[in-house]
Amino acid sequence: MVQRREQARVSSERFAEFNLEGKVALVTGGGTGLGRQLALALGETGAHLMLVGRRTEPLEETAAMIRTSATIISGDLTDERTVGRLVQYASQVDILVNNAAIAPKTDWLQQTLADFRQTMEINVLAPYRLCQVFAPAMAARGWGRIVNIASIYGSVGVDVRRYPKGFDVPAYVASKHALIGLTRYLACRLADTGVTVNALSPGMFPSRSRYTDVELHTLSEELSRATPMQRVGGPDDLKAAIVFLASPGSKFVTGHNLVVDGGWTVW
Predict the structure, then answer these.
(1) I need a surface site. Which of 88, 135, 228, 239 has the fewest CB within 10 A?
(2) Active site residue 172
(3) pLDDT digits (tens, 9 = 90+) for 173-218
């Protein structure tokens, strides 16, 4: 019995490296999909959440599921007025998760420059702007975690044959490559401050919000066949990864792109 208690004590001390109690985590696009999964994971490990997104209702739904507590801020991250509202929290935010993104699916020959620019604004420039807002205060305190949610399509190309007809995401792929590059650059700039900057790249996590039930079923089967683990990502497959990158335990990890894809990129 004494031995078991000692083992439990040691185990508890080790997992303290992943305890986020007392930390404040801001998650953009936290109302739906992967953003909700990321926010719930951080809440489960003790962080207070700040959820940012365009629509209030999904943010409220996520907030109601958070085990700790959550603050909701609705607004467009490409609008400097929204950014201005976030500046007041710069001294409080310990963990920044840049998750909000869009992916217009138009044939690359037909996708307009306006669509391309909007994708870059949301997927790259908004994360960059938020890093400008929150990183200096983190550095001044000597601790901070920035996690940019990229994609495996920030590292590889897209086999459009596996997707529904008309699926084409040139701006999205370009933006995720750019986001990983930005991650590595800022990791170098902040490396001696106690602030780490990493990317998290999900693989196949098809969303119900983007496809009909029939399309989702067909797509999931196709993507599962193309994944070594023979399945797509589930509702808790990113949780351990985001907690690790946001935690004290990842203090010697920066500039890294953590891929969670069931083996998609190792074929």
Answers:
(1) 88
(2) yes
(3) 999 999 999 999 999 999 999 999 999 999 999 887 667 788 888 8
In a domain, 62, yes or no: yes
* Cα 43 to Cα 217: distance, rounded to the nearest angstrom: 30
Residue 267: its pLDDT value, please?
86
Tell whether 158 is covered by a domain: yes
If one counts the domains in the chain, the total is 1
The crossing angle, in degrees rounded to 10, of helices 239-246 and 33-44 is 60
147 forms bridges with which residues in the sheet?
Answer: 97, 198
Q: Is residue 229 part of a domain?
A: yes
Alpha-carbon distance 189 to 120, whole Å? Answer: 22
Residues contacting residue 153 through CB under 8 Å, at least 6 positions apart: 169, 172, 173, 176
- pLDDT given at position 14: 55
Contact 124, 148 (CB under 8 A): no
pTM (two decimals)? 0.92
Instruction: Please write the tens of the pLDDT for every residue from 53-87.
Output: 999 999 999 999 999 999 999 999 999 999 999 99
Q: Which domain holds residue 120?
A: 20-266
Give the CATH number of the domain where residue 185 resides: 3.40.50.720
Query: Does the residue 108 lie in any domain?
Result: yes
Q: Dump pLDDT digits (tens) for 74-125.
A: 999 999 999 999 999 999 999 999 999 999 888 899 999 999 999 999 999 9
Q: Is the CB of residue 118 less than 8 Å from the CB of residue 174?
A: no
